[in-house]
Design a protein that fits this description.
mainly alpha, single chain, about 160 residues, 7 helices
């Protein structure tokens, strides 16, 4: 199971759509060999989330996020304190579900489990740095749009 998991990590790190799909196959192979392999479920969730976020759109993207959510839920059932799974769930909550409060809680909990995890630090920092700007835009979007369109010339 570990070998399939490691092959999945290799493919996921390669970054292409084809390699991301190969990673998903390898994580499934690891899970078939060891159905209680929580790290493989967390990695599978990350692969599906990455596939959906980068390479897919519309219904395919939504389905990829459903697959990611199912895998991360299983990973957290197997190990509720998995920093990797908490990080992926935080990502899904932030960027697929737009639940930024829950995403922040997941990222903070992941950091409690692994205080030196650079990915979790980056994810939390990115979320906290982006939220104020996003909230300002949401609150004043009508004014932004009318200001942009005020000088437009129809022609």
């Amino acid at each position: 199971a570990w070998n399939a998991y490691a092959r999945g990590n290799f493919h996921l790190d390669s970054g292409s759509e084809a390699d991301t799909r190969k990673a998903i196959e390898q994580y499934h192979a690891a899970i078939n060999l060891d159905p209680r392999y929580g790290r493989a479920y967390a990695a599978l969730s990350l692969a599906w989330a990455r596939l959906g976020a980068i390479f897919l759109g519309g219904d395919e993207q939504r389905q990829a996020y459903v697959e990611a959510r199912t895998a991360v839920d299983t990973a957290l059932q197997l190990n509720p304190d998995s920093a990797a799974a908490l990080g992926v769930r935080g990502y899904l909550r932030a960027y697929a579900e737009f639940d930024w409060v829950a995403a922040e809680a997941d990222y903070r909990r992941a950091l409690q489990q692994m205080p030196n995890d650079g990915a979790a630090k980056y994810a939390l920092g990115s979320l906290l740095a982006t939220l104020p700007l996003l909230l300002v835009f949401i609150l004043f979007q009508k004014q932004f749009v009318s200001g942009l369109m005020g000088g437009a010339v129809k022609g």
